[in-house]
Structure prediction request, 452 residues.
Amino acid sequence: MKKIIIIGGSDVGIITGLRIRELDKNMDVSIISSNHFPNFSICGIPFYIGGEIKNYKDLAHRTADEIRATGLKLYLDSTVTNVDPVNKQVSFFDSDGKAGLFAYDNLVLGTGAKSIRPDIPGLELPGIFVLRWIDGAIAIDSFIKEKKPIEAVIIGGGYIGLEITEALIRRGIKVKVIEFFDHILTTVDREFGEIVKKVLEEKGAQIFTGRKVEKITNEDGRLQIHATPDLTIAADMAIVAVGVLPETSLAKRMGIETGIKGAITVSRNMETSIQNIYAGGDCTESMHAVTKKPVYIALGSSAHKHGRIIGENICGLKNEYPGTLGTQSIKLFNTVIARTGFNDQEAMEAGFQPLTIDFETWDHKVYYQPAYIIRIRFTADRKTETILGCQIIGSIKAEISKRIDIIAVSIYKGVTVPEFVQLDLSYTPPLSSPWDPVQMAASVWLNKKKTV
Ligand SMILES: Cc1cc2nc3c(=O)[nH]c(=O)nc-3n(C[C@H](O)[C@H](O)[C@H](O)COP(=O)(O)OP(=O)(O)OC[C@H]3O[C@@H](n4cnc5c(N)ncnc54)[C@H](O)[C@@H]3O)c2cc1C
Prediction:
C-alpha cells in the first residue's frame, strides 16, 4: 500500500489528504500537524475576535472526527523534527512527547507560514499578541473579556491588521494603527488605501503612517508604544500584524531548493526539487498566472488549489497549477476593497505598456434605490489590449467581489478589452446595468486609448 505523509493540518494538508481519499481509497495517508486545530479557517479569526462569529469552533471547515471518518490518519500536536529524503523517513514527536518514525513513498510539505516577530524590544510584554493561529485568537478574546482594555494599538496596516482594527472597534476598544509605509493596505494603490483609511477613521480608528515602532515599554501598568518620528502611544493591548514568512526550516534542512523570501520552489505540478516530495500553500512560491514567474503570495484561496493539485498528482492524474493573480477581497465594516493582477507600476515592471484609467459609477440602475457608488481602477496593455489588473472599492452591497472575479477570469483567459466589453454578463436593474460597471470601465479605457 502506498504511504503518503503530509506535514501540516491546515488548508494544504487537509485538502491534499481529502483529494487523495476521493481518488484512491487504498493509499495510507497520515497527516502530522504541530497545531491543535486541524482545518480551521484562520481567515475567519478577525470575525471571531470582532464577535461576529460567537464560537471559535464554528471556524472549523471540518472537525477532526469528520476528517478521520474519511479514513485519513490525523496526528495533532505532533511536530515533525526531521525528514530523511534518502531513506524516505519522517521523525516526529507526538502529542505525548513520544518520538515516532514513519516511512513514506510520497511526502507533502504544507508547513505554511509564520507571522513575522519584528525585532522590537518589549515585544514579549503581557498584552502584546503576534497573531496567526486559533489559539492566539482565543487568547486575544480571553484577554479582552478579562482585562477589558480601553485602548489598543495595531502594529501593521496590512489587510490582517485592518481586519483586526475593525474587530477591536466592534468590541468597543479605541484603536490606533501604526504603519511603516506611507499608506495603509499596500496591496492596492495609495488612493484606494486613503479611502480605506477614511472608512476606518469614520469608525473611530486613528491611523499613523510612515512610522516605525522602535520599542515597547510598560509604564505604570500600561504599554507605551514608541515609534519614530515623534510618536508615543499608551495602550492596554497591542497586536502585531506585520506580515508573514514561509515556514521552511524543515525543507531547508532537507536540502530542498528555496527562492523568494525563503519559500520552497515548486514546479507547476507542485513538486519540490526532491522527487516525490510535494509542497504547496504559504510555505511555497507560486507561479504568477501572467508572467509565469515565481511570486510569493500567501493566500488561503491559492493554498486550497495547491492542495487539490498535489493530491491529484500523487494519485497519478497529471495536473498543473495555472498560477496566481493575487486576487483578493477585503471587507472593512460596510466597505469592500478588491484587487487582482497588476497595478500600473507592477505592469510596467513586468514589461507591459500599461494604460490605467479611473472610473466611478453606480453599482446598478440608480432609479432602484439604494444604489451605491463604486470606484474602479482598470489597467490593460496598450499594445495587445489584454486586461492586466483592476482595483475596486465600494459598498458591501455593491457586488465588488463578483466584479473583481470577472476581471480575474478575463486576465486568466487573456481576454482583450474589446472582447471584455462584449461579454454577456447578467443584468437586472437592482443589481447591475446593461453594461456592467466593469464593462463601462473597459469602455472608458478604450476611449482613453484613442486619445493618448
Ligand atoms: C488572520 C488571517 C486572516 C486571513 N484571511 C485570509 C483571507 O481572507 N483570504 C485568504 O485567501 N487568505 C487569508 N489568510 C491566509 C490564509 O489563512 C493562509 O494562506 C492559509 O492558511 C495557508 O494555508 P497552509 O496550509 O499553506 O498553511 P498554514 O495555514 O500556515 O498551516 C500550516 C500547518 O503546518 C503545521 N506545521 C508547520 N510546521 C510543522 C512541523 N514541523 N510539523 C508538523 N506540523 C507543522 C502547522 O501547525 C499548521 O497546521 C489569512 C491569514 C490570517 C492569519
Observations:
- Residues 7-13, 32-35, 42-43, 45-46, 79-80, 110-113, 132, 160, 247, 250, 281-282, 298-301, 303 surround flavin-adenine dinucleotide (CB under 6 Å).
- The mean pLDDT is 97.
- The first strand starts at residue 3 and ends at 7.
- Residues 47 and 286 are 27 Å apart (CA to CA).
